[in-house]
Batch of 2 targets.
Target 1
Amino acid sequence: MSSILVADRITKQFGAQFALKDVSLEIPANSIYGLLGPNGAGKTTLIRIINQITYPDSGQIRFAGEPLQPHHIAMIGYLPEERGLYKSMKVGEQALYLAQLKGLSKAEAKKRLLYWFDRLQIGDWWNKKIQELSKGMAQKIQFIVTVLHQPKLLIFDEPFSGFDPINANIIKEEILHLKEQGTSIIFSTHRMESVEEICEYITLLHNAEKILDGKLSDIKKQYKNNIYNVGMAIQQGEEFLKELSERFQIISPSFDPVASELEFQIQLPSGDTRSLLNQLSSKGTIYNFVETIPTANDIFIKTVQSKSVNE
Amino acid sequence: MNKLGLIIKREYLAKVRNKSFVIMTFLSPILMVGMVVLIAYLTKINDSETRVIGILNESPFYSDDFASTEALSFVVLRDLNLSEARDSVINQNFYGLLYLPEGTTAEEVARQAYFYSKEAPNSGITDRLDAIFRDRLRQQKLIELGVTAEEFASIDSGFQLKTETFEGQQNLKGINELKAFIGGGFGYLIMMFIIIYGGFVMRSVIEEKTSRIIEVIISSVKPFQLMMGKIIGTSLAGLTQFAIWIFSATLLLFTVMSFLGLETSAFQSASVLPGGTVSELSSMGSDVSEMQLYANELFQIPWAMLIFFFMIYFVLGYLIYSSIYAAIGAAVDNETDTQQFIFPIILPLMLAIYVGFFSVFGNPHGPIAVGFSLFPLTSPIVMLMRLPGGLGEGGVPIWQLVLSIFFLLITFIGIVWLAAKIYRVGILMYGKKPSYKELFKWLKY
């Protein structure tokens, strides 16, 4: 598996404060990579280092195997968290300008812009100024400007803030489409639930340090706790609960005698569910049996807590 | 096209296409001319009223001395006593009443003379009356000493000392002041340009910060490129504006020259003559032949040298100051926070102008003038005030010029480097109102 980007022991300090402390990570090519962590964890600093806006105090970044150099800028697309466009400049002109700054020729930029304007249905805004546009429309244009030069690596910092749900979905679809075409994508966000479903890999940053990284499915497996959500139809719910709690730990049970519905969470000693399922199905009809998979947020909280206990 | 070129082009077009820029470019010359005309017109109206003064002369003297002029006319009152005269002056709405009582000598009369008026008289009128008495008394005394009236008239003919340099070049009165004035004009131009266009650069940086486009752009170009592109693009827009103004001023100049019947061919060879000189000349004297002398003298000023060094000082001075402006724009979030930083920038500029006008005009090669023309933050203005006097012998010593440009270059490199550092950090800082201490910390990031 080749990596599009490797960060090797990156450290960055602002005055006495660490923004990044010995952070290493590896972003596999053609993947969607989540850079997660609360505000102030160092995500934006890391992204700015990748974009060569700031430089690390120590450590090295390798892009597609080479040490990061100015010409790599043309292969990276970046949608910053603090984003905007010139308010009094015409949409088309502005998009052309930004595309040319990324190294596209004017003719090529125009051709691609027209394609994207058509694709996202913003056809007749070419000669309008940004200040005349709705916020959602401006965000779409911002997105187009980010991806127009067909970068190998796309970096989105809080991509969905400022989008309404419909537009957010359009953009999400476009991002997935870009991934299918071979682009590698980094998502940075503190709202972990928002990108969890599309990230294959994640890194958790906390207080300038990496506390966890890897393939999301592996991490989840590692953090799963054999708790299952159970819902079943049963007449004598109370008695059955008593019977079960002698052998297992039962969490937040509830029984509705009118509908004869029993719901609870159960802690199993291992991932083996066969004996429990046999017992359950002998007593009633199971309509819900799901393993509770920890969210990235849960994992994050857990990791941070265990870290602070260890320290 | 390279990135710097793209940025310069965008900044230039953004500025030039701006409606207020277009309006200011074409409107401000009209406003300036209009203002001058208006002031002249209003002054004329204000002064056009003829004031009438009644004279009650009970003495045998002074009967021929009060001659009416356009602004002041005298009416002699006869066969009235003082209180009647006063009433009649008030009734006829005269400006005032001059009362000359009886007396045996002109001097005695003058001592007892009184001027009555409705309100405290304006100084122009009292000066005029004083002068009449003074002249009359002086004449009287000289006549007593044996000078005839004709001889007295010949005493007061005008005199002006003619001067010449050791090389035998004839000098004109006030030419040094005029030269310094021309240099001052250049210096003033630099100051205005720095303040106006430095401000534009600053606002443009703030605009990029508040519209949050800055991070999008600096993910494509280096902050330093963006800063320089902005400074250069904005100043090109400024130069465009100046070119339009100079062109229209030159046009106006030729029109005025042809009205005055001066040799315009001479002016064509020195194509870039600052617009101010003509009005200055025409106010100095209507004597055309003398004006021609002044014009000749003006052509002796080493214009090519002056313009060459003007360009050097202009470019370096402007780059120094505008990069400071750019750094200020980057450090703040909105224009209201800029005040505390702008004052220290404008201070040396103002100082340069005032020091220039007070000390360079008096002594272009005195210690203050030399000091300020070496100090890099004031040299662009002060040195240009000294340069019209020439370079080398009798003018600015070459070593001073070289040293001054050297200091300016060093400062230029240092300031741009510092400003670029502050700029680089500042553009990504939001919601902070920085102090000087904070800025100092940024230098170390």
Target 2
Amino acid sequence: MSPQISTGIEIDIEKRLGEFNLAAKLALPPSGVTALFGRSGAGKTSIVNALAGLLKPDRGRIAAGGEILFDSTRGIDLPPERRRLGYIFQEHRLFPHYSVKGNLLYGGKGNGQISFDAVVTLLGIENLLARRVGELSGGEKQRVAIGRALLANPRLLLMDEPLAALDAARKAEILPFIARLRDELSLPIVYVSHAMEEVVSLADTLALVDDGRIAAIGPVEELTSRLDLRPLTGRFEAGSVLRTVLRGQDATYGLSELAFPGGRLRVPHLALPLGTVLRLRIHARDVVLANAPVAGLSIRNAFSGKVVEISPEPGPLVDLRIDIGTPTEPVMLWARITRRALEDLKLQLGGPVFALVKTVALDRPSPGRPDAETEAS
Amino acid sequence: MLTPLESEALLLSLRVGLVSVIFSLPLSLAVAWLLARREFPGKTLLNGIVHLPLVLPPVVVGFALLVLFGRNGVAGAWLYQVFGLTFAFDWKGAALASAVMAFPLMMRAMRLSLENVDRRLEAAARTLGAGRVKVFATITLPLMSPGILTGAILAFARSVGEFGATITFVSNIPGETRTLPLALYVLTQVPGGDQAAWRLTAISVALAMAALIASELVARRLDRRIRGAG
């Protein structure tokens, strides 16, 4: 469990919901995006509802920014309207009898940092203000819902699967706006999701929720690379998350160089300033392994490393964790190969290996290019 | 065009209907809210009591009102002493009888519309900083407005047509309690009153139709509004 941070959010609650027992204890950092990740029915929404004051825990304590929102022993239970937590629901929950503008202004006019005009511009809803809710598309509705929550001056935003009700195109439309909230407003966000793609692209901290409990909490890169958490993070999503810095541009070939401890990845040109921190996701299936340096291959991104872990799960496919970093700063890469290949290559724990990366997914792109997959060069 | 007798009955009916609707509306809303949103001991009993006028013979309701609200009745004596209010043999008594008879209709329409209000919208409003009262006034009430309107129109129509409880409670006094149905009843009891009875029937039908059409038009507009369309 992470250390208690008094200015962040502390939750330690118990709630019985029929046959389901929620017993969540977690401390969230006071900034950045924290994802609550878990399968449907794991209790993610219940935790967020308890935080917002829409679900009363049987026992426990909730504090945010040093203020106690709920404390069963002291009989404190702040009503939702006094908690100042912006809530964006899975369904937009716009008020149908108000115009878009009426919805936006329902909770307040914003403040110095988050003004009405700024929010409207940020979310690109200038042209929708006079419309009725029934005339909006799904994506537009969710953008208005985000704006409405922002203008109520929340100290924190709660997002309960805000993209789940939208199709892929609409998701791609909303995701950059959420990224902009994170980057431009420095408002802490608690993001509930059961889609690892969204979590990795948005979140800094990951809390894994399983059967009403917090199974683990920590940096996204760390938790997604842990084999013991694989049942919770999902084998389907198998991959590793790398934090890189844009260090060079190769004008001749139109490539950008992304540095991480121990090496550089080359990807097609990114129109971003040098020094930009980018998070990459490399799927285990996009990593090719070799037991010796390979010549005569089109893949340019090859890194030497050593095998740190081999998944014990039975089946024709095995996942290997490869450390391609430096001795002081390990960088973990997952690779998925067949069991046959593992035996043919005679790869062993602690042994040397060469990892070739075919494709990387850019998870922290500029707004408007969410989750772009790009061939590594 | 209308005879003095007819316009007297018509105006009295309108007054009785309006007054009964206006005064029973807040109470009806409160009972609808209790039954739709609250759990409390005696809820089934309350539900039964407010529905009684729907299933009892109107004469029974009229007689009960006479016992309770007559000049010597428990409530009637008190109301007279404290407020100087008289219901017996008075048009206000006719309004009370109509209100009681129409109450279940009005309450049921409101309760139904309240049950259809999306409580998730209310929760969203709370998270936006609105307290319970503001949420009720700005979200719940507007969203149930079609039900309130339907309930009020139904109750009005029922009030205008009320006969049994009225004649039992406040009798049939020209200019005071002789509403359209009572006037019609009188005409059917006298020889040669057929033509006049037909005229009153036509007036009743016209009044009822006007109320229903008006409610339909307003309800349609309200409905469009709360569905967020144009």
